[in-house]
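User: I'm putting together a small comparison set for a docking exercise, and I want a reference complex before I start. The sequence is below, and the ligand is arginine. Could you produce the 3D structure with the ligand included, as structure tokens?
Assistant: Of course. I'll restate your input first, then give the structure tokens for the complex.
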Amino acid sequence: MTQHRRVLMCSPEHYGLKYEINPWMHLDDSPDTLLAMGQWQALYSTLTVDLGVQVDLVDQAEECPDMVFTANAGLVRGKQVLLARFRHPQRQLEEAHFASWFEANGFEVLKGDPGCYFEGEGDALFVGSTLLAGYLKRSDICGHRWMADCFETSVLSLELVDDRWYHLDTCLFPLNADTVVYYPGAFDPYAQSVIHNSFNTVVVPEEEALRFCCNAVVIGRHVVLPTGCPVLCAELEERGFMPHQVEMSEFLKAGGAAKCLTLLLDNSG
Ligand code: ARG
């Protein structure tokens, strides 16, 4: 399940900070756009050159500064995509652009109930054949039944309780089909016990969770994650994985890091 080879990215031509919709974003602390471009290119080259991932690109719309976070575009399974319905009006502008890209690239675009927010792979991650789905901060739990029906899969609904980890992919990532890496403090006690009882787990320390160490891309035995996460890197090496650290400072200013700059396009199903 974690041998993902094809992802969607968006070169940050119009990346910037024009609004505040999470606690990391501050209008008086805008990203350096040149530096951001360099960091994005380093991630792109780690994925393509070092790890052999196929990267498809979608053009960034000028009015959509957060469109670089392609993980939020939707959730792909086979040739179908459940399109995002963003909670914030500022990001709703992205929906039509992503829908056009998916249609032009042979995906069947499915749209859920307009009253039910869903922020794509930011809040929905497959672990083996089970879908882990975060809710409350951005996505609504009402979409989980729809996802389960569309993809004929079981969904574990996980409540997020801390605004700093507002998407599931900011505080959890599947390492393989039965192991997840996560920061328990981002989840309510019931979700913590569901995770703990359903999978083998690796718990990360708070200071690394704050560096978005869980915003990681796993390609087989390789894990691409933000710099500044030595405890998790050591743990990964001990388990036979190879960490690849990428500097993500300019994307952290918008509340994102490595994983949310990619969307899996070959989620098998
Ligand atoms: N500024 C963006 C937002 O708040 C960041 C999104 C990060 N995406 C993610 N999948 N964690 O929506």
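Residues 21-22, 25, 66, 69, 71-72, 91, 122, 167, 169-170, 254-256, 260 surround arginine (CB under 6 Å). The chain is about 25% helix and 25% strand.
User: Thanks, that's exactly what I needed.
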